[in-house]
Amino acid sequence: MRRTDDGTVEGLNFYQIGATEPEFSRKVSDEVAVRSVVELSEDQAARLIGDYQLQPNFVISVRYTDAGITAQATGQSAFLVKAESPTVLFNEQFGIVMEFQLPEQGSAEQLTLIQGGQKLPAPRIENNEEGE
């Protein structure tokens, strides 16, 4: 942490992977955001399950497993996500939030991935590999 002369925290220096020099990140708030976790019903979870295309050849797959709801991006390992609401899933470890666009009936049409200050839309796609 970096402090002012009177001891107040003004920010911190951090090292990116492989960096030899730190980067400074200024403190922006004293508030700590705490996400609430809700349990989704089976029907609520089923509306979110599917494949969402973030970019060509880069898909986020949302699945329901014995361990709970998972998300997995192309070429990466699956990880558990928690529900903040029937339309928002998150993983604090990776700093990921997924907001789902739900019609009145049926499955989600799109998710928006929020990570690192970016909001990236990912429309739902049909995966022809299902059931193989």
The proportion of residues in beta strands is over 45%
Largest sheet properties:
9 strands, antiparallel
Roughly what percent helix? under 10%
Quaternary status:
single chain
Shape: elongated
What's the helix-strand series? Answer: EEEHEEEEEEEEE
Structural class: mainly beta
Total helix count? 1
Strand order of the largest sheet: 7-6-5-4-12-11-10-9-8
- State Rg: 18 Å
Number of strands: 12
Overall pLDDT, averaged? 90
Terminal residue distance:
52 Å
Query: What are the segments in which pLDDT stays under 50 over at least 5 consecutive residues?
Result: none
Provide structural commentary.
With 132 residues, the chain is mainly beta. It is 5% helix and 47% strand. The chain contains 1 helix and 12 strands.
Brief overview, please?
Helices cover 5% and strands 47% of the residues.
What would the keywords be for this entry?
elongated, 1 helix, mainly beta, 132 residues, 9-stranded antiparallel β-sheet, 47% strand, 3-stranded antiparallel β-sheet
Give me the secondary-structure topology.
Layout: E1 2-3, E2 9-14, E3 23-26, H1 42-48, E4 50-55, E5 58-65, E6 68-73, E7 79-80, E8 82-85, E9 88-91, E10 96-101, E11 110-115, E12 118-125
